[in-house]
Amino acid sequence: MAISDLIIISGLSGSGKSVALRSLEDVGYYCIDNLPVGLLHELMVKLSQDMKNGKLRVHGIAVSIDSRNRQFLLEIDDALNSLGKFGVGCRVLFLESEDQILVRRYSETRRKHPLTDDFTPLLEGIQQERDLLMPILGRAEKVIDTTGTTPHELRSWVRDFAAGDAVHGPLLLIESFSFRYGPPKDADFMFDVRCLPNPYWQESLRPFNGLDKPVQDFLGEQPEVIEMIRQIHDFLKSWLPGFIRENRYYITVAIGCTGGQHRSVYISDQLYDRLNGESLPVQIRHRDLGVRTGDHAT
Length: 298
Hints:
The chain has eleven helices and nine strands.
């Protein structure tokens, strides 16, 4: 039995790497935190041998790499390219978050950031870390922004990412969102549907969302909405095979409207129904559904 998958988890300190690593451990990965680059090759040799001899049974290997491992970051291309001899694909999962959120998390936990000292304040240390991590960010297959993410959501996304290897093809996430709260940073494709008729301006529809029948009936009768869904569906069917050929395992398609309640939710739901079952694992997430701040058009 050979190693089927190797995941490198990296990202900003305080972004949730420990949660991600534990999530992979829970689903059968052999996990190591902050492995020195010089030991990565030896680790793969040892684990590959143990698995072939039946001494170890794991789904894959997960290694957390952060700014403490500067030598790895300097040699990342050579280090990752050398893993090809083991016949295992290496995927990089990168976690990030907004600066103010990272500052708050460090303030709440009273932990010390690895790049701060008597002369380097926290915000400056965070920026230095961003610069240090640019090489591995450039190799990332998936970037997760944990700014507004709960540990439960992060664990779910990490497991979904890991599952991408098992299904031998891309795992497609259809995600609705509100432009008011900003577009998802990890989107591979993004479609703006704010040009479509807005149910919000129908007073009788305002209390409902895109999963409710009254809104679905209204939008389903609009020619522009029908055409938008058809064109996005055709676009994805045409170009997703290219991602499969490039061994991409996780693809996010973001659909945005003003408030993330009606149009983006309905269209995401319709795309999910059309794409699900077409030999491609599909998931759906409504990021901002239920989030309302004041009486604004959605």
